Amino acid sequence: MAIETILSALVYPGLVFIVFMSFLYSGFMRKVAARMQHRIGPPLWQPLLDVIKLMGKEDIRPEQSKMGFTFWPFIAMVSIATAGLLTPIAGSVPLGNSDVFVLLYFLIFGTLALYLSGFSSSNPFSVVGAVRGVVQMIGYEFPFVVSLIVSILAAGSVFPIEINNFQVYNGWISLSFPLAALAFFVSLLAKVEIPPFHVPEAHQEIVSGYYTEYTGSRLAMIIMTHMLKLFVLVSIGIVFFFGGSVSLFSFLWKSLAIVFLATLSRVVMARMRIDYVLRFCWIFGFVGLIDLARILL
Amino acid sequence: MKERLYRITDRLVSYARRKSPWILHMDTGGCNGCSIELFAVLTPRFDIERFGGVSKANPRHTDILLIDGAVTKKIRPRLRRIYEQTPEPKVVIAVGACAISKGIFHDAYNIDGPLDEVMPVDVYVPGCPPKPEAILQGVLKALKLWESRYTV
Question: I want to staple B96 with a disulfide (CB 3.0 to 4.6 A). Which of A88, A129, B34, B40 is the partner?
Answer without folding.
Answer: B34
